[in-house]
Design a protein that fits this description.
Oligomer: heterodimer
Radius of gyration of chain A: 26 Å
Helix content of chain A: 25-40%
Structural class of chain B: alpha/beta
Distance between the termini of chain A: 56 Å
Strand order of the largest sheet of chain A: 11-10-12-13-15-14-21
CATH architecture of the largest domain in chain A: 3-Layer(aba) Sandwich
Number of strands of chain B: 12
Largest sheet of chain B: 8 strands, mixed
Number of domains of chain A: 3
CATH class of the largest domain in chain A: Alpha Beta
Number of helices of chain A: 21
CATH architecture of one domain in chain B: 3-Layer(aba) Sandwich
CATH class of one domain in chain B: Alpha Beta
CATH topology of one domain in chain B: Rossmann fold
Largest interface: A-B, 70 and 61 residues
Number of strands of chain A: 23
């Protein structure tokens, strides 16, 4: 630690940006992990190109990782960075518009030669053109300093250059008074079998730390004290990881074996990766030949008695549509996770959007109702994956869980839940005591049919995609039966509303404006309405985790406000749904489709604008 | 799986549903042959599952008094895989047709075989689409006129056996719907085989492709135009049992015993267990005589056996005994 006094600050937003091969995701993750261990509240936002190694030195190839850490409670990765680390000219070009005047920019000047800034699309040398005049600049020859620091270790040039991210990380650690131990531990285990690489990385990390101290990169180092969090044991979780764990917990709780049928697709694949690590729990992780086989193998496993899930993103959900209809018709438990990304078509594979809602609700042939729910934050993915499994198993229905690229790849501190604190899951199974069990006999309250699967003697039966007789499940073409079954399948899904939590309102409980959101935008919206508390107008936030069915008290909540503003990262899909479901209210909408999360400032503008309107 | 002899008869496997295939359809004979095979496989009824896709043949599960799943077009291999992986103790049977398996479901078909999941697949090949009323299929003969090829098809057909061997299949057999005993025997052998067993059944669609196989199955020609293979036996056929196959260079040739100095010792002996599929491929491709019986049956690990073994191995090594252990693993911190 330097000799200068350490200044306490409430929160800081740091963005690490560089070439997609520069290790910026790792750098950001390390800063996040270290800060989490110090007890800060955290939100992160990785932003990277779809290409694995996009053209070097170009704006298209810039990979970024934004992390927001706070002593205060944090719900978003921050609108704009307080510190931008730009490892090359392209990283500066891609991010400078987001940095406000007076904020800090750390540059690796070794990557600002004429060819570098030309490639990045600057007309003149940004270091002398004056565009950086209003920022607090830390211009450091990071690459050559790293090279000097690692001299004599016998590393090749490539390995030296690959260590420069640790140098930059060391600098930022000094600036925010972070200890190095967390990252040292990480390097110990990552390079356990490569001692020279290990030494190089540790040396670069320390060199960066001492360099920042020596040059006093900031007038003084700052620190962010721990956040005031509920007591308990915490860990940092990413959304996709939490989703995977939620399913493992649900399987254990339900006494079922977990079956995952999945085909790799960005940004959902990490759920497959995570579950593949945990086959020791008996999880059957089946990488199928395509999206369709992913879901149909899961349906087969569900027919045979497993907790079956399939994971995908928008284009994959389109391919799964027909099979999802089969699960609706056969009334089998199934969870489908759609980690939404920008569309249509291949769209923006690594960017976030909420534009699969209509597809989730209606993207199938025939009247094909499924339960649709959504996770609101990385940690919430755990609870919603668990909840999706519980609904599927107890109500004998497919459940579609929507997350998105932002929630899936973002991370936050999670107060670790124990499985004994989770609700019980009681699969709706046929019991030996049932007299004359019929495949489509239903529970009078939930309308769930009773699950009987191969191995259960006396329960042999046939089901399939043809319309079912309302009791026997035999094929039926009777007109009245078809109508009745269509109504029953819808009613069964609607009755799930009797088993889910009611809608809660953040902020004012009644008043001038109710802001409405769903899914991964919760953090941005919550921050925005919290910033509206000083106004003379009363603003509340109703965030929907349950979309179909809607919570029972939805209309009751809506009635308490004069205006309703629905904010979504699409062209207005939830608002369209609400207009159909609850047409008695007038809805206004605020939408964004840039492949990026909402900025708080965009939301507060929209909210203020509506409040000012007569 | 139980190996005890269970007191079932064919009737125990007949469901209460009325069978709705066309009168004279070859499917009736196959259904009977399957129902006769079931008591012989030594598996309890509740542990048997029939899975299908879409098409005439795919109605099959409704007529079996076992567990059954009538799925969607082409996807039965994936459905059946899910069933088998969920519960490897089950005897899983897939019923499919030439359109379901080789057109819309072609991808799933080859990947099922590649993985070698222990499923018995009955592929009813009638070289036509029946349920959609008479369009050509991936096995329709080149040039044949159908409703969707009024001027004759211009697509080359698939030979299912070539696909199976091309996908590294370990079990392939062929039968005709006119030979109930032959079918039943093959079904029983297919169940014994640990891995994907593909049984192509030449099936007569009396409405849209009537008698397409009569040059092979006709009563007057079948002895001369079919070769019934048995492992370890010479490849002899013909109404006089005097014809056989020999290798002439890289080709199979039909010879007559007693002519040109040929004796029974010159005739090829069938080895279904040979790992190298070269000769099996020649047999599959042979036009006349059409080769029947178990062409290939090679032992290897099935997918679900490997899956189970892997789960057991990692479970032994894993530090996590419950999900709670996982949740508190890694870097954690306590807030007081």
């Amino acid at each position: 630690m330097g000799t200068t006094a350490v200044k306490e600050i409430d929160k800081v937003v740091i963005k690490f940006a560089g070439d997609s091969g520069d290790g910026m995701q790792l750098t950001g993750t390390q800063f996040t992990g270290t800060s989490a261990m110090l007890g800060n509240d955290i939100a992160t936002f990785p932003d990277y190109p779809a290409e694995i190694r996009a053209p070097q030195g170009t704006v298209a190839g810039v990979s970024g990782f934004q992390v927001h850490i706070g002593h205060a409670h944090i719900h978003t990765p921050g609108d704009t960075p307080d510190v931008l680390v730009a490892m090359n000219a392209a990283a500066l070009k891609a991010n400078i518009k987001d940095v406000q005047k007076g904020k800090t920019i750390i540059l690796d000047t070794d990557n600002f030669h004429r060819k570098d800034w030309e490639k990045a699309g600057f007309d003149e040398d940004p270091l002398v053109s004056g565009i950086l005049r209003d920022f607090h600049m830390v211009e450091a020859p990071i690459t050559s300093l790293t090279r000097t620091a690692l001299e004599g270790l016998g590393l090749d040039n490539k390995s030296i250059i690959r260590s420069k991210n640790m140098f930059a990380l060391g600098m930022v650690y000094w600036m925010f008074s972070r200890p190095l131990e967390y990252t040292e531990r990480f390097l110990d285990s990552k390079f356990a079998n490569k001692p020279e690489i290990h030494e190089g990385n540790v040396k670069a990390l320390k060199a960066g730390y001492h360099y920042a101290d020596t040059i006093e990169a900031l007038s003084s180092a700052s620190t962010i004290l721990p956040a005031d969090m509920e007591s308990g044991l915490y860990k940092n979780v990413m959304g996709n990881e939490a989703t995977a764990w939620g399913f493992l917990a649900a399987a254990e709780k339900a006494g079922k074996e977990l079956f995952l049928g999945s085909y790799p697709i960005t940004p959902a694949t990490d759920i497959l990766h995570e579950l593949a690590k945990h086959k020791h729990f008996g999880a059957k992780v089946f990488q199928a030949e395509d999206e369709i086989a992913g879901i149909t193998s899961a349906i087969g496993a569900s027919f045979a008695g497993d907790l079956a899930i399939t994971t995908t993103s928008g284009p994959g959900l389109a391919l799964k549509g027909e099979a999802l209809g089969l699960a609706v018709m056969t009334e089998l438990p199934l969870v489908v996770v759609d980690v939404q990304r920008g569309g249509p078509s291949t769209g923006l594979p690594t960017k976030t959007e909420q534009s699969d809602l209509m597809q989730a609700l209606y993207g199938r042939n025939g009247e094909s109702p499924v339960v649709v729910i959504a996770a609101k934050s990385p940690a919430d993915c755990f609870s919603m994956a668990f909840r999706a499994s519980k609904i599927a198993l107890e109500h004998m229905t497919p459940v579609l869980l929507l997350t998105d690229g932002y929630v899936a790849n973002g991370s936050q501190p999670w107060k670790i839940l124990k499985t004994e604190d989770l609700e019980d899951i009681k699969p709706h199974e046929a019991e030996k005591t049932m007299q004359n069990w019929q495949p489509y006999e239903r529970d009078v309250d939930s309308l769930a049919r009773y699950w009987a699967y191969p191995g259960m003697a006396g329960y042999e039966h046939r089901i399939g995609g043809l319309e079912k007789d309302e009791l026997t499940g035999n094929v039926s073409y009777v007109p009245e039966n078809h109508q009745k079954m269509i109504n029953t399948r819808e009613e069964k899904v609607q009755r799930v509303a009797n088993y889910i939590p009611e809608l809660e309102v953040d902020g004012e409980q009644e008043g001038d404006l109710l802001v409405v959101s769903w899914g991964g935008t919760y953090g941005s919206l919550l921050t925005a309405i919290n910033q509206c508390t000083g106004l003379d107008k009363k603003v509340g936030l109703a965030h929907f985790s349950y979309i179909k069915p809607l919570p029972r008290n939805t209309a009751e909540v809506f009635k308490k406000f004069k205006k309703i503003l629905v904010c979504e990262l699409n062209k207005g899909q939830f608002v369209k749904y609400l207009r159909g479901e609850l047409p008695e209210f007038t809805y206004q909408q605020f939408n964004k489709t840039q492949g990026l999360p909402f900025r708080v400032i965009e939301l507060t503008h929209a909210i203020n604008q509506i409040l000012e309107e007569k | 799986m139980s190996v005890e002899t269970l007191e079932y008869t064919a009737k125990d496997f007949s469901s209460d549903q009325e069978v709705k295939w066309c009168p004279g359809c070859g499917d009736y004979a196959i259904l009977k042959a399957v129902q006769r095979a079931m008591p012989m496989i030594g598996v309890k009824r509740e542990n048997i599952v029939f899975v299908s896709g879409i098409g005439c043949s795919s109605r099959f599960p409704y007529y079996m008094n076992t567990f059954g799943f009538h799925g969607i077009h082409g996807r039965a291999p994936a459905l059946a895989t899910g069933v088998k992986l969920a519960n490897p103790d089950l005897s899983v049977w897939q019923v499919t047709g030439d359109g379901d398996a080789l057109a819309i479901g072609g991808n799933h078909f080859i990947h099922l075989i590649r993985r070698n999941v222990n499923i018995n697949v009955m592929l009813f090949n009638n070289r036509i689409y029946g349920l959609t009323k008479g369009q050509f299929s991936p096995t329709t003969n080149l040039g044949q006129k159908t409703k969707s090829s009024p001027q004759g098809t211009i697509d080359n057909p698939f030979n299912p056996g070539e696909l199976v061997l091309g996908a590294n299949g370990y079990f392939f057999a062929r039968a005709t719907d006119t030979n109930p005993k032959g079918m039943t025997e093959i079904f029983v052998e297919a169940e014994k085989h640990q891995g994907t067993s593909i049984i192509e059944i030449l099936q007569n669609c009396v409405i849209f492709n009537k008698d397409i196989f009569t040059d092979v199955t006709g009563k007057d020609v079948k002895l001369d135009n079919q070769l019934h293979l048995e492992h370890g036996k010479p490849m002899i056929f013909g109404s006089q049992s005097n014809k056989g196959l020999v290798l002439n260079g890289f080709k199979l040739e039909v010879v007559t015993i007693g002519e040109n100095g040929i004796t029974e010792d010159d005739i090829l002996v069938h080895d279904a267990h040979e790992e190298d599929s070269t000769l099996h491929m020649m047999l599959v491709k042979l036009h006349m005589p059409a080769v029947m019986g178990i062409i290939r049956s090679v032992k290897t690990d099935s997918f679900e056996v490997r899956m189970k073994r892997q789960v057991e191995e990692v479970a032994k090594k894993s530090p996590y005994k419950s999900v709670n252990d996982l949740l508190v693993s890694g870097e954690t911190w306590e807030i007081k």
